[in-house]
């Protein structure tokens, strides 16, 4: 899909962000289910495995970055803007992030149950072994428009 066709009217509507970095992506696990949590307002943060950015030669998310979040069919469902981005080790993630990620029981126990195997798989894909001291990027965002 050519996402420029989606971006053009959005950038006209949100002119303040016309020079902001932008990206199109889907959540790594259960994309449609997780984007629905964003749409309902339950999910206002997401975390990713920092070493994967260097491996994939991608920029780390930034404050003010616009995101077209896609469903499992790569269809844009919501436009968000990053309001805060943090970098901390996996073992330093707390209940606050688990709650804002909006998944499951919204506590750290659940968050670790689903994220540790996910990050371990990402680490394996890039030829690394996941350890609790690995760095995690957390993006905090707000919804600008449901598409």
From TrEMBL:
Signal peptide positions on this chain: none
Q: InterPro entries from the xrefs?
A: ASCH_domain, DUF984, PUA-like_sf
The organism encoding this protein is Leuconostoc inhae
Q: What is this protein called?
A: ASCH domain-containing protein
Could you tell me which residue ranges the ASCH domain spans? 25-145
Query: Gene3D superfamilies per the record?
Result: Sulfate adenylyltransferase
């Amino acid at each position: 899909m050519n996402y420029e066709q989606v971006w053009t009217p959005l950038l006209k509507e949100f002119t303040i962000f016309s020079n902001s970095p932008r990206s199109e992506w889907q959540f790594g696990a259960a994309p449609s289910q997780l984007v629905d949590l964003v749409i309902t307002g339950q999910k206002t943060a997401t975390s990713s495995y920092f070493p994967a950015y260097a491996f994939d030669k991608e920029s780390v998310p930034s404050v003010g970055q616009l995101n077209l979040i896609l469903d499992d069919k790569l269809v844009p469902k919501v436009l968000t803007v990053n309001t805060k981005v943090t970098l901390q080790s996996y073992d330093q993630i707390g209940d606050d992030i688990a709650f804002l990620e909006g998944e499951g029981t919204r506590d750290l126990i659940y968050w670790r149950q689903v994220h540790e195997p996910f990050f371990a798989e990402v680490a394996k894909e890039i030829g690394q072994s996941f350890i609790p001291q690995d760095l995690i990027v957390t993006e905090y965002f707000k919804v600008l428009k449901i598409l």
